[in-house]
Amino acid sequence: MTTGTNESLELAIELQPTQPVEAQPEAQAEQPTQPLEQPGETSQEQPTLLLPRYEQLTEQSFSQPISIPRRPRSKLRWLVLLPLYLLLIGGTLVGRAAIESRLTGKPAVTPQSTPVLIHSQHTSVHVSILDTTIRGFMHAMMRKDWATMWSMLSPDTRQLFKGEQDFEHFEQAKFGAIAFVSFQPGKTQLLQPWLDPDTTRVYSIAAVLQVSLAATAPAGVLTAPSRNALVNGLFHNTLMSLVLHNGKWQVVLAGPADLDAPVLVPASPPHVRLLVPVFMYHHVSNKPTENILDYSLTVTTTDFNAQLDWLQAQGYHSINMTELFDALYYGKTLPPHPMILSFDDGYEDMYTDALPALLAHHDRGVFYIITGMIGGRYLTWNQVRALAENGMQIASHTIHHVNIGQPPAYTTTQDELQQSLATLQALLGQPIQFFCYPTGEPFHHDSYYEQQVVLADLLNDGYVGATLDPFSFDAAIQNAQTPYQLPRVRVSGGEGLLSFTGILNYVLRYDASVMASTNA
Fold first, then answer.
1. What pLDDT is attached to residue 128?
2. In angstroms, how far is CA 41 from the centroid of its own chain?
3. Would the N or C end of the chain have less CB density within 10 A of its end CB?
C-alpha cells in the first residue's frame, strides 16, 4: 500500500460518521468478476461482506448486482414525485437511499466498494490503534475478564443484551469451564459501507476480520461431539468487526464471544423451556401458482410483508437458532416477543422476494437448504452465500429431501446428514449446526426405533438442534431437553393476516397455559 493511499485511508476514517446509517450510495468503478469457489475449496482471503443487491446474480460472477423490477407507477405519481427525484439526483447520498426506501417500500441499497486490506505490520497510527483494540478485547477474553470486554462493546451491540450482568452471565455460562489456549487474528478489511449480519444495520465504515480461538474442555462439561468439535477448530475464523464511535474503535461482532458464534452443547442440558414461535415458510412470491400443492406452500410477497409489518408493530423480534440455544443452554435473555422465521427447501424466491422483505424490516431468517437441488427454481450457490452474508442463517435440509428415517436405496441417513453438512460448511466457511427434517419424517409415520437412530446420528454428526414439520398441530414450546424435536407454526398459502394472527395468538395462549400447568 502506497503512502498516498495510507493518508487517504486515514483521512477517510477520521471523517466518517460513526452512527449506523441506512445506506450511502456512491459511484463505483466497474470491478472484474471472480468465479465463485466451489464447495470444498478454501480461500486465502476473507470473503467480502455484501450489502443486499437486487440485480441478477450469475454462477460465473458473484460480484454482479441483481435487479427486481420496480412496481409500475402512474403519470400522476411521477408528477408528484418529480421534485423528490430531482432532489435524489443532486441531493445527499444518505438522503437518497432513505427517501427511495420509503417511497418503494424496499430497503435502502448501496453498491459495495472495494475493500482495503490492512496488514497487521502496518505502521499507521490508526491501524495501530485498531490492532490494539482487537488484541485487547481478545486478551480480555483469554483472561475471562467479561467486564473489560463489555466496556469495549459498541452501544449497538450492548443493546442486544439486557445489560452488563446479562452479558457476563452468558459468557460465563458458556465459557466458564472452557480452557482457552490461544487466539490468532487474521487480516483486517476496512469495508465502506458494511452490513452487520447480527442486526442487518448498515454502518458507513467498519473494520472486519476473522479471529481463530483454540480451546479445550474438561471431560464431562460438553457432549463428546461438541468437545471434539471444540478441539478441532470449532471457533476457527469467527467473525469480528469494529466501528468508530465518538472517535474510538469499538467492537460490534465479538468473534468467538459473539451471540452468533458456534454453540457448545453441555453434557447435561438444563431443564429450560421457552415460548418462542418458529414460523415455517416455503415459497414467498407473487407469481401465480400452478397447482394446489404450490398454492398451499406459497405465501404471497404482499402477505409476507403484511405479516412482518404486523409482527413489527406488535413488538416481535426475530432471532435465529443460535440465539435460541444461547438462551436455552446459557441463560441469555431473549428480546421481548422473540420469534424465528424459518424457510424450507431453498427456493429461488427466498432470494428475490423473502430477503428484500426481511432486510427492509431488519429481520433475520433461518434458511434450510437442500444441497442436491441447486439452481433452476432453487437458489444458486451464489445466492445461498449472499443470504449468509446479509445476516441470514443457513442450515441443512439433506441432499435429496428424503425421509431420513427410511431413506431410499440410492442414499443413506448418514450420507444425507453428513454430506449436506460438509457441503454447506465448505461453501460458507463456517460451522453448520442446525437441521430440518424433510416432511417431518421420521416423526410422523416411522417407528420409535427409527426415530432414535436418527436422533443419535444428529448428535454424533455435530448438529445442535433440528426443527419439525407441524403436521397436525402447531406449537411454540422450545425445550432444551429435546433439541432435535423443535416444534414450529406453519404459515400456509392463502392465509390472510387475520388467520395468521389468530393462529399465532391461539398457539401462544394454549402453550402458555401448558407451561403454567406443568410448572405449577
1. 77
2. 22
3. C
What type of residue is 359?
L
Strands 194-195 and 202-203, how do they pair?
A: antiparallel
Task: Decide if 65 contacts 54 (C-beta within 8 A).
Answer: yes
Give the 3-state secondary structure of 353-400.
Answer: HHHHHHHHCCCCEEEEECCCCCCCCECCHHHHHHHHHCCCEEEECCCC
- pLDDT in the model for residue 142: 98
Q: What is the pLDDT of residue 126?
A: 53
pLDDT reported for residue 111: 32
200 vs 457: CA distance, rounded Å: 34
* Cα–Cα distance for residue pair 288/291, rounded to 1 Å: 9
Quickly count: other Cβ atoms within 10 Å of residue 442's Cβ. 23
**How many CB atoms neighbour CB 69 within 10 A?**
6
pLDDT reported for residue 472: 76
User: pLDDT for 317-338, tens place per residue?
Assistant: 999 999 999 999 999 999 999 9
- 507 within 8 A of 277, measured Cβ to Cβ: yes
Show the cell assigned to 519. 410448572
Question: Which residues in the chain come in under a pLDDT of 70?
Answer: 1-127, 520
Residue 398 lies in a domain: yes
Residues 253 and 278 in one domain: no
Distance CA 372, CA 185 (A): 35
Q: How far apart are CA 505 and CA 516, in angstroms?
A: 16
Q: Tell me which amino acid residue 353 is.
A: D
Q: Are 382 and 375 in contact (CB under 8 A)?
A: no
Host domain of residue 246? 116-257
pTM for the whole thing? 0.77
User: Regarding beta strands 338-345 and 317-318, do their DSSP bridges make them parallel or antiparallel, or are they unpaired?
Assistant: parallel
CA atoms of 235 and 255, how far apart (whole Å): 9
* Residue 18 DSSP class: -
Dist CA 22 CA 100 (whole Å): 11
For residues 20 and 193, is the Cβ–Cβ distance under 8 A?
A: no
For residue 352, which phi and psi values (nearest 5 degrees)? -80, -30
Number of structural domains the chain divides into: 2
Same domain, 340 and 489: yes
**Could you read off the pLDDT of 172-230 as tens digits, one per residue?**
999 999 999 999 999 998 998 999 999 889 999 999 999 999 999 999 999 999 999 99
Q: For residues 175 and 166, what is the distance between their CA atoms, to the nearest angstrom?
A: 14
**Residue 289 per-residue DSSP state:** P
Strands (E), 19-134: 116-118
Instruction: Compute the distance between CA of residue 159 and CA of residue 333 in angstroms, rounded to an integer.
Output: 11
Integer Cα distance of 180 and 216 in angstroms: 7
